[in-house]
Amino acid sequence: MQIQDILAVVSEEFQAVDRLIHAQLASRVPLVEKIADYIVSSGGKRIRPLLVLMTAKAFANKEADAVKLATVIEFLHTATLLHDDVVDTSDMRRGNPTANAKWGNAPSVLVGDFLYSRSFEMLVELECLPVMQILAKATSVIAEGEVLQLTNVKNPDTTEQQYMDVIHGKTAMLFEASTWGMASLMNRSDEEREAMRIYGRELGLAFQLIDDVLDYDGDAETMGKNVGDDLAEGKPTLPLIHAMANGSEEQRKLIRSVIRKGGLDDISDVLNIVHELGSIDYTRQKADECIERARAQLAILPDSEARNALDALALLAVKRNQ
Protein backbone atom coordinates (compact mmCIF):
# COMPACT_ATOMS: atom_id res chain seq x y z
CA MET A 1 0.00 0.00 0.00
CA GLN A 2 1.14 3.52 -0.81
CA ILE A 3 -0.08 6.62 1.04
CA GLN A 4 -2.73 7.20 -1.65
CA ASP A 5 -4.13 3.70 -1.03
CA ILE A 6 -4.21 4.34 2.72
CA LEU A 7 -6.01 7.65 2.27
CA ALA A 8 -8.54 5.98 -0.02
CA VAL A 9 -9.74 3.79 2.87
CA VAL A 10 -11.15 6.85 4.64
CA SER A 11 -11.45 9.29 1.73
CA GLU A 12 -15.03 10.37 2.51
CA GLU A 13 -14.26 10.88 6.19
CA PHE A 14 -11.07 12.75 5.31
CA GLN A 15 -13.01 15.14 3.11
CA ALA A 16 -15.47 15.67 5.96
CA VAL A 17 -12.55 16.55 8.25
CA ASP A 18 -11.29 19.06 5.72
CA ARG A 19 -14.73 20.70 5.55
CA LEU A 20 -15.02 20.84 9.34
CA ILE A 21 -11.51 22.26 9.70
CA HIS A 22 -12.34 25.19 7.43
CA ALA A 23 -15.75 25.71 9.03
CA GLN A 24 -14.17 25.85 12.49
CA LEU A 25 -11.54 28.37 11.39
CA ALA A 26 -14.20 31.05 11.09
CA SER A 27 -13.40 34.03 13.30
CA ARG A 28 -14.68 37.57 13.70
CA VAL A 29 -11.02 38.66 13.58
CA PRO A 30 -9.84 38.45 9.93
CA LEU A 31 -6.14 37.98 10.76
CA VAL A 32 -6.92 34.97 12.97
CA GLU A 33 -8.78 33.30 10.12
CA LYS A 34 -6.08 34.22 7.58
CA ILE A 35 -3.15 32.82 9.57
CA ALA A 36 -5.02 29.73 10.73
CA ASP A 37 -6.16 28.93 7.20
CA TYR A 38 -2.60 29.45 5.91
CA ILE A 39 -1.03 27.01 8.32
CA VAL A 40 -3.65 24.25 8.06
CA SER A 41 -3.64 24.49 4.27
CA SER A 42 0.14 24.41 3.86
CA GLY A 43 0.47 20.84 2.64
CA GLY A 44 0.91 18.78 5.79
CA LYS A 45 0.42 15.02 5.68
CA ARG A 46 -2.31 15.09 8.34
CA ILE A 47 -1.14 11.76 9.70
CA ARG A 48 -2.73 12.32 13.11
CA PRO A 49 -6.32 12.87 11.94
CA LEU A 50 -5.77 9.99 9.53
CA LEU A 51 -4.96 7.78 12.53
CA VAL A 52 -8.21 8.84 14.23
CA LEU A 53 -10.28 7.98 11.16
CA MET A 54 -8.57 4.66 10.50
CA THR A 55 -8.91 3.61 14.13
CA ALA A 56 -12.65 4.33 13.91
CA LYS A 57 -12.89 2.42 10.64
CA ALA A 58 -10.93 -0.53 12.03
CA PHE A 59 -13.56 -0.87 14.75
CA ALA A 60 -16.34 -0.48 12.15
CA ASN A 61 -17.42 2.90 13.50
CA LYS A 62 -18.88 5.44 11.10
CA GLU A 63 -20.11 8.08 13.51
CA ALA A 64 -19.51 11.77 12.89
CA ASP A 65 -17.69 11.89 16.23
CA ALA A 66 -14.61 10.47 14.50
CA VAL A 67 -14.54 13.45 12.14
CA LYS A 68 -14.84 15.87 15.04
CA LEU A 69 -12.07 14.19 17.05
CA ALA A 70 -9.82 14.11 13.97
CA THR A 71 -10.36 17.87 13.58
CA VAL A 72 -9.58 18.47 17.25
CA ILE A 73 -6.33 16.53 16.87
CA GLU A 74 -5.33 18.47 13.75
CA PHE A 75 -6.01 21.80 15.47
CA LEU A 76 -3.90 20.78 18.47
CA HIS A 77 -1.09 19.74 16.14
CA THR A 78 -1.31 22.96 14.12
CA ALA A 79 -1.21 25.04 17.29
CA THR A 80 2.01 23.31 18.36
CA LEU A 81 3.54 23.98 14.93
CA LEU A 82 2.78 27.70 15.19
CA HIS A 83 4.35 27.85 18.64
CA ASP A 84 7.33 25.65 17.68
CA ASP A 85 8.25 27.84 14.72
CA VAL A 86 8.35 30.87 16.99
CA VAL A 87 10.45 29.07 19.61
CA ASP A 88 12.83 27.71 16.97
CA THR A 89 12.83 31.00 14.99
CA SER A 90 12.08 28.90 11.90
CA ASP A 91 11.39 30.62 8.60
CA MET A 92 10.52 27.59 6.46
CA ARG A 93 8.12 24.67 6.95
CA ARG A 94 7.05 22.19 4.26
CA GLY A 95 8.77 24.33 1.66
CA ASN A 96 6.77 27.46 2.53
CA PRO A 97 7.48 30.49 4.73
CA THR A 98 6.34 29.94 8.30
CA ALA A 99 3.49 32.01 9.71
CA ASN A 100 5.87 33.86 12.00
CA ALA A 101 8.08 34.72 9.01
CA LYS A 102 5.06 36.19 7.19
CA TRP A 103 3.14 37.86 10.03
CA GLY A 104 5.50 37.97 13.00
CA ASN A 105 5.84 36.11 16.29
CA ALA A 106 3.02 37.70 18.26
CA PRO A 107 0.20 36.90 15.79
CA SER A 108 1.54 33.35 15.35
CA VAL A 109 1.51 32.64 19.09
CA LEU A 110 -1.95 34.12 19.54
CA VAL A 111 -3.45 32.21 16.61
CA GLY A 112 -1.91 29.06 18.07
CA ASP A 113 -3.76 29.89 21.27
CA PHE A 114 -6.96 30.38 19.26
CA LEU A 115 -6.59 26.91 17.72
CA TYR A 116 -6.01 25.36 21.15
CA SER A 117 -9.16 27.05 22.43
CA ARG A 118 -11.24 26.07 19.42
CA SER A 119 -10.08 22.45 19.70
CA PHE A 120 -11.24 22.27 23.31
CA GLU A 121 -14.59 23.80 22.37
CA MET A 122 -15.11 20.92 19.95
CA LEU A 123 -13.79 18.45 22.49
CA VAL A 124 -16.46 19.50 24.98
CA GLU A 125 -19.09 18.86 22.30
CA LEU A 126 -18.00 15.21 22.19
CA GLU A 127 -19.15 14.85 25.82
CA CYS A 128 -16.67 12.09 26.57
CA LEU A 129 -14.72 12.55 29.79
CA PRO A 130 -12.09 9.82 29.08
CA VAL A 131 -11.19 11.52 25.78
CA MET A 132 -11.03 14.91 27.48
CA GLN A 133 -8.67 13.43 30.06
CA ILE A 134 -6.47 11.90 27.34
CA LEU A 135 -6.16 15.14 25.38
CA ALA A 136 -5.77 17.35 28.44
CA LYS A 137 -2.89 15.11 29.54
CA ALA A 138 -1.49 15.04 26.00
CA THR A 139 -1.27 18.83 25.76
CA SER A 140 0.66 19.06 29.03
CA VAL A 141 3.03 16.24 28.00
CA ILE A 142 3.62 17.95 24.64
CA ALA A 143 4.45 21.23 26.39
CA GLU A 144 6.81 19.42 28.76
CA GLY A 145 8.50 17.74 25.80
CA GLU A 146 9.08 21.06 24.09
CA VAL A 147 10.49 22.62 27.27
CA LEU A 148 12.71 19.57 27.81
CA GLN A 149 14.01 19.88 24.26
CA LEU A 150 14.68 23.56 24.86
CA THR A 151 16.71 22.79 27.99
CA ASN A 152 18.71 20.20 26.02
CA VAL A 153 19.63 22.56 23.19
CA LYS A 154 23.41 22.96 23.00
CA ASN A 155 23.83 20.32 25.73
CA PRO A 156 26.20 17.59 24.48
CA ASP A 157 25.62 15.57 27.67
CA THR A 158 22.03 14.75 26.69
CA THR A 159 21.49 11.00 27.11
CA GLU A 160 19.63 8.65 24.78
CA GLN A 161 16.88 8.28 27.39
CA GLN A 162 16.49 12.04 27.70
CA TYR A 163 16.25 12.23 23.92
CA MET A 164 13.55 9.54 23.88
CA ASP A 165 11.63 11.45 26.56
CA VAL A 166 11.75 14.55 24.37
CA ILE A 167 10.45 12.85 21.23
CA HIS A 168 7.72 11.06 23.16
CA GLY A 169 6.49 14.42 24.38
CA LYS A 170 6.93 16.56 21.29
CA THR A 171 5.78 14.01 18.68
CA ALA A 172 4.65 10.59 19.86
CA MET A 173 2.18 11.82 22.48
CA LEU A 174 -0.25 13.26 19.92
CA PHE A 175 0.00 10.12 17.77
CA GLU A 176 -0.78 8.15 20.92
CA ALA A 177 -3.70 10.42 21.79
CA SER A 178 -5.11 10.02 18.27
CA THR A 179 -5.49 6.25 18.34
CA TRP A 180 -6.08 5.91 22.09
CA GLY A 181 -8.58 8.76 22.09
CA MET A 182 -10.64 7.28 19.25
CA ALA A 183 -10.70 3.83 20.85
CA SER A 184 -11.82 5.45 24.10
CA LEU A 185 -14.47 7.53 22.34
CA MET A 186 -15.95 4.28 21.02
CA ASN A 187 -15.83 2.77 24.51
CA ARG A 188 -13.71 -0.18 23.37
CA SER A 189 -12.35 -2.65 25.91
CA ASP A 190 -9.38 -1.80 28.12
CA GLU A 191 -7.25 -4.24 26.13
CA GLU A 192 -8.21 -2.68 22.80
CA ARG A 193 -7.62 0.86 24.06
CA GLU A 194 -4.21 -0.07 25.42
CA ALA A 195 -3.21 -1.75 22.15
CA MET A 196 -4.17 1.34 20.15
CA ARG A 197 -2.37 3.59 22.65
CA ILE A 198 0.85 1.62 22.21
CA TYR A 199 0.42 1.50 18.42
CA GLY A 200 0.14 5.30 18.27
CA ARG A 201 3.03 5.88 20.65
CA GLU A 202 5.45 3.55 18.84
CA LEU A 203 4.45 4.92 15.44
CA GLY A 204 5.05 8.46 16.69
CA LEU A 205 8.45 7.57 18.11
CA ALA A 206 9.48 5.96 14.82
CA PHE A 207 8.18 8.95 12.88
CA GLN A 208 10.38 11.36 14.87
CA LEU A 209 13.40 9.06 14.73
CA ILE A 210 13.18 9.05 10.94
CA ASP A 211 12.73 12.84 10.95
CA ASP A 212 16.00 13.09 12.87
CA VAL A 213 17.70 10.71 10.45
CA LEU A 214 16.58 12.83 7.50
CA ASP A 215 18.20 15.89 9.05
CA TYR A 216 21.52 14.18 8.24
CA ASP A 217 20.51 11.93 5.38
CA GLY A 218 17.69 13.68 3.54
CA ASP A 219 17.09 15.90 0.55
CA ALA A 220 16.28 19.54 1.30
CA GLU A 221 14.01 20.00 -1.72
CA THR A 222 11.99 16.88 -0.92
CA MET A 223 11.65 17.67 2.79
CA GLY A 224 10.82 21.35 2.42
CA LYS A 225 13.45 22.30 4.99
CA ASN A 226 17.23 22.48 5.13
CA VAL A 227 19.37 19.43 5.83
CA GLY A 228 21.28 20.14 9.02
CA ASP A 229 18.62 22.34 10.63
CA ASP A 230 18.82 20.39 13.91
CA LEU A 231 22.61 20.67 13.91
CA ALA A 232 22.41 24.39 13.23
CA GLU A 233 20.19 24.79 16.29
CA GLY A 234 22.48 22.69 18.48
CA LYS A 235 19.90 19.93 19.00
CA PRO A 236 21.51 16.68 20.24
CA THR A 237 19.40 14.13 18.36
CA LEU A 238 20.06 10.38 18.37
CA PRO A 239 22.53 10.26 15.44
CA LEU A 240 24.80 12.68 17.36
CA ILE A 241 24.26 10.99 20.73
CA HIS A 242 25.22 7.61 19.23
CA ALA A 243 28.25 9.07 17.46
CA MET A 244 29.53 10.66 20.69
CA ALA A 245 29.12 7.34 22.51
CA ASN A 246 31.00 5.36 19.85
CA GLY A 247 33.47 7.72 18.22
CA SER A 248 37.12 8.47 18.88
CA GLU A 249 38.13 11.16 21.34
CA GLU A 250 38.72 13.54 18.45
CA GLN A 251 35.31 12.80 16.93
CA ARG A 252 33.57 13.24 20.29
CA LYS A 253 35.27 16.57 20.86
CA LEU A 254 34.23 17.83 17.44
CA ILE A 255 30.57 16.85 17.89
CA ARG A 256 30.45 18.26 21.43
CA SER A 257 31.87 21.52 20.14
CA VAL A 258 29.38 21.67 17.26
CA ILE A 259 26.42 21.04 19.59
CA ARG A 260 27.58 23.75 21.98
CA LYS A 261 28.02 26.44 19.35
CA GLY A 262 25.38 25.40 16.79
CA GLY A 263 25.72 26.48 13.19
CA LEU A 264 26.78 24.57 10.10
CA ASP A 265 30.49 25.35 9.83
CA ASP A 266 31.44 21.73 10.49
CA ILE A 267 28.47 19.99 8.88
CA SER A 268 30.60 18.06 6.35
CA ASP A 269 32.76 16.60 9.12
CA VAL A 270 29.73 15.74 11.24
CA LEU A 271 27.99 14.05 8.31
CA ASN A 272 31.10 11.96 7.67
CA ILE A 273 31.28 10.93 11.33
CA VAL A 274 27.62 9.90 11.74
CA HIS A 275 27.80 7.82 8.57
CA GLU A 276 31.19 6.31 9.36
CA LEU A 277 30.12 5.24 12.87
CA GLY A 278 26.81 3.77 11.74
CA SER A 279 24.83 6.34 13.72
CA ILE A 280 22.29 6.78 10.94
CA ASP A 281 21.80 3.01 10.69
CA TYR A 282 21.50 2.77 14.48
CA THR A 283 18.76 5.39 14.53
CA ARG A 284 16.92 3.67 11.69
CA GLN A 285 17.19 0.38 13.58
CA LYS A 286 15.57 2.01 16.63
CA ALA A 287 12.75 3.23 14.39
CA ASP A 288 12.32 -0.27 12.94
CA GLU A 289 12.04 -1.70 16.47
CA CYS A 290 9.33 0.83 17.31
CA ILE A 291 7.41 -0.10 14.17
CA GLU A 292 7.57 -3.81 14.96
CA ARG A 293 6.09 -3.08 18.40
CA ALA A 294 3.40 -0.93 16.78
CA ARG A 295 2.46 -3.54 14.20
CA ALA A 296 2.21 -6.25 16.86
CA GLN A 297 -0.64 -4.31 18.51
CA LEU A 298 -2.80 -4.59 15.43
CA ALA A 299 -3.43 -8.28 16.09
CA ILE A 300 -6.24 -7.20 18.39
CA LEU A 301 -8.20 -5.67 15.49
CA PRO A 302 -10.59 -7.63 13.26
CA ASP A 303 -9.24 -8.32 9.80
CA SER A 304 -10.21 -5.41 7.55
CA GLU A 305 -9.00 -2.94 4.96
CA ALA A 306 -8.52 -0.38 7.74
CA ARG A 307 -6.34 -2.74 9.78
CA ASN A 308 -4.21 -3.39 6.68
CA ALA A 309 -3.95 0.36 6.13
CA LEU A 310 -2.74 0.93 9.71
CA ASP A 311 -0.12 -1.77 9.15
CA ALA A 312 0.93 -0.21 5.84
CA LEU A 313 1.17 3.24 7.41
CA ALA A 314 3.56 1.88 10.03
CA LEU A 315 5.80 0.44 7.32
CA LEU A 316 5.71 3.65 5.30
CA ALA A 317 6.72 5.68 8.35
CA VAL A 318 10.22 4.18 8.28
CA LYS A 319 10.60 4.17 4.50
CA ARG A 320 9.73 7.79 3.83
CA ASN A 321 12.14 10.44 2.56
CA GLN A 322 10.29 13.51 3.85
UniProtKB/TrEMBL annotation:
<dbReference type="InterPro" id="IPR000092">
    <property type="entry name" value="Polyprenyl_synt"/>
</dbReference>
<dbReference type="InterPro" id="IPR033749">
    <property type="entry name" value="Polyprenyl_synt_CS"/>
</dbReference>
<keyword id="KW-0479">Metal-binding</keyword>
<comment type="similarity">
    <text>Belongs to the FPP/GGPP synthase family.</text>
</comment>
<dbReference type="Pfam" id="PF00348">
    <property type="entry name" value="polyprenyl_synt"/>
</dbReference>
<protein>
    <submittedName>
        <fullName>Polyprenyl synthetase family protein</fullName>
    </submittedName>
</protein>
<keyword id="KW-0460">Magnesium</keyword>
<dbReference type="InterPro" id="IPR008949">
    <property type="entry name" value="Isoprenoid_synthase_dom_sf"/>
</dbReference>
<keyword id="KW-0808">Transferase</keyword>
